[in-house]
Amino acid sequence: MRWHDGSVGISLQNRVDPFDTIFRTAARGTMLGNRGGALHNSDREIVRGYKSRRWITYVLEFRGRRRIESLYRAVFPRRAVAFAAGHRPCAECRRQDYNAFRHAWRRVKQQDGYPLADDMDVELHPARIDRGKKALPDGCFVQIEGRPYLVWRDALLVWSPEGYERRDERPKNSILTVLTPEPIVRCFRQGYTPEIHELGRFLNSR
């Protein structure tokens, strides 16, 4: 079994990209995910994309425990990718993010009370494989000519497992293929802002 930081090389096909494709790479993970059970068999071959509708993301370390990769966990090279793949924050180790996400969800639905985890998972699950085309808020991923881009302010940032490679101007009045599931997009529109790494050099450029 290999530590999450990639220090012993690649042993599992468990990285997830914004297309929700599971692949191998030497890029280090910044977030772990669970999809309800093992995705691999005993020979470390992928046999399913998920086992249940509970797709959640964990931090790498929590209360002194350092989590490691296993046959049960997906790994995200960048945190924003987890949302594009359809995962929500863990209610235990990411409690602040989880509560903020629930608050945004409540506003989207105009509910009196806060949703339970199961309520969100029931709606999220079918949307993970029903990715439409629409105008987007910051933090979403889109596909252009087969490549994933992060939508941020007036730009589109080209994504790769090693980081964001290039800043392109955000096209006006364009319809793009959306990779982020719609319930998460709606939460972004209601004020939930995902944590985005490595943006400084792009935001200062014109």
Count of separate DSSP helical elements: 5
Shape: globular
Rg, alpha carbons: 17 Å
Q: What structural class should be given to the helix and strand makeup?
A: alpha+beta
How much of the sequence lies in strands comes to: 15-25%
What order do the helices and strands follow?
EEEEEEEHEHHEEEEEHH
What about the largest sheet?
5 strands, antiparallel
Number of strands: 13
Poorly predicted runs: 1-10
* Share of helical residues: 10-25%
Distance between the termini: 44 Å
Q: Can you give a write-up of this model?
A:
Mean pLDDT is 80; it is low at 1-10. The radius of gyration is 17 Å and the shape is globular. The protein has 5 helices and 13 strands. By secondary structure, it is of the alpha+beta class. The protein is 22% helix and 22% strand. The strands form 4 sheets. It has a 5-stranded antiparallel beta sheet with strand order 12-11-10-9-13.
Search tags:
206 residues, alpha+beta, 4-stranded mixed β-sheet, 5 helices, disordered N terminus
Write the layout of secondary structure elements.
Blueprint: E1 15-16, E2 22-23, E3 31-34, E4 56-58, E5 61-62, E6 65-66, E7 73-76, H1 79-84, E8 88-89, H2 95-109, H3 117-128, E9 141-144, E10 147-152, E11 155-160, E12 163-169, E13 177-178, H4 182-189, H5 200-203
Short description:
This protein has 206 residues and is α+β, with helices and mostly antiparallel strands. It has five helices and 13 strands.
